[in-house]
Design goal:
single chain; alpha+beta; Rossmann fold; D-amino Acid Aminotransferase, Chain A, domain 1; Dna Ligase, domain 1; 29% strand; manganese
């Protein structure tokens, strides 16, 4: 067991997809896979820490998915008849700390984070101020540009002014992952994509021909630590982006990654605990695509890749410096379009 000086701390774990966020609708397969990967990895880490009691909100459709923890954690079942937000608030009140993992879309993550702050509970993720900036891709672009951090140019998408000339990316301003993200190369693509766009605000970006990757990091009051560099396998089919897999702890971490983490930490001191930085890598430069102020899918492979219990390190902060030196060092492939995880 990993020991941390805590007095029977009650921790609420709420992963939005598996925790009832879609309790009245069908859960998209990819989101279900990613959500369950993150939930199981987080529970594995937290369950090895002494003197804490875990409370987990769980959509009844996932009841059998974490059966290995039966009797060791308290499960709050969520079905289609319950109000997820009301249940969440009630559980927050009875806990000491909260680890929420939720999408930025429609201010979901911001609203949950703000509720935790207002109820005076320990937040095991980034502040609402940091979430407000990073949840909006246009605001993230403006903010990082102000701090002289290389980022993909972004501007508001205005349908009647859009010119389908050259490769461009259209995505929701507050979207999650590859959901509703399109690449338009020409008029033919535009004819296919336009009917699929909803009423919500989008942004448009130039398509950068490079390697999609991410940095898994820890943050604490303006300081940042790089855990690992990950490479994403993304395909584009019928103009839509789809994340198929993620290779966690890709070899070749260099000083540029660590320097970028330091600059992001300084620019966004509200980032706290685990967060991810999505980047595009080219032979000439590295540019930030977006910042995820929460657990990302890559988290699910870190324990097996590095041997680090990231949750334990998050709980050690803010008083202590996290230990990020790998105990082991190998790459792990996470298959998102499916439910298999395997090591290379």
């Amino acid at each position: 067991m990993i020991c941390i000086i805590l007095c029977a701390m009650k921790i609420l774990v709420f992963e939005y997809v598996t925790g009832g966020g879609f309790n009245r609708e069908r859960i998209p397969d990819t989101l279900a896979t990613e959500g369950l990967l993150m939930l199981k990895a987080l529970l594995q880490d937290l369950s090895e820490i002494a003197d804490i009691k875990l409370i987990v909100m769980l959509d009844t459709r996932f009841a059998d998915s974490i059966s290995e923890y039966a009797g060791t954690i308290e499960i709050v079942p969520i079905d289609a008849h319950q109000s997820v937000l009301e249940t969440f608030q009630k559980q927050v009140v009875r806990c000491d700390a909260v680890w929420s993992v939720a999408p930025e879309i429609n201010n979901i993550l911001f609203d949950l984070t703000r509720m935790i702050e207002r109820l005076g509970k320990r937040l095991l993720s980034s502040s609402s101020e940091a979430v407000a900036i990073t949840s909006n891709k246009l605001e993230t672009f403006r903010y990082l540009t102000q701090h002289r951090i290389e980022t993909v140019p972004s501007e508001p998408f205005i349908p009647h002014r859009f010119q389908p000339i050259g490769r461009q990316v259209i995505k929701p301003v507050d979207g999650m992952g590859c959901e509703r993200t399109f690449r338009v190369d020409n008029a033919e693509d535009w004819a296919l994509v336009r009917p699929q766009l909803g009423e919500e605000p989008y942004i448009v970006q130039p398509y950068i021909d490079g390697t999609p990757a991410s940095l898994s990091c820890l943050f604490n009051h303006g300081k940042g630590w790089l855990l690992c560099h990950n490479v994403q396998r993304i395909e584009i089919k019928d103009c839509r982006f789809k994340l198929n897999a993620c290779r966690v702890n890709e070899p070749g971490v260099n000083a540029n990654y660590k320097a970028l983490v330091d600059r992001v930490a300084h620019a966004l001191p509200g980032l706290s605990g685990y967060a991810g930085i999505d980047i595009i890598e080219t032979p000439e430069y590295i540019t930030v695509l977006e910042i995820n102020p929460r657990l990302t899918t890559s988290y699910a492979g870190i324990r097996e890749a590095l041997g680090i219990n990231v949750a334990a390190e998050v709980l050690r902060m803010p008083q202590n410096r996290p230990s990020v030196n790998p105990i082991i060092n190998r790459s792990i492939n996470l298959l998102i379009d499916g439910d298999e995880t395997y090591a290379n």
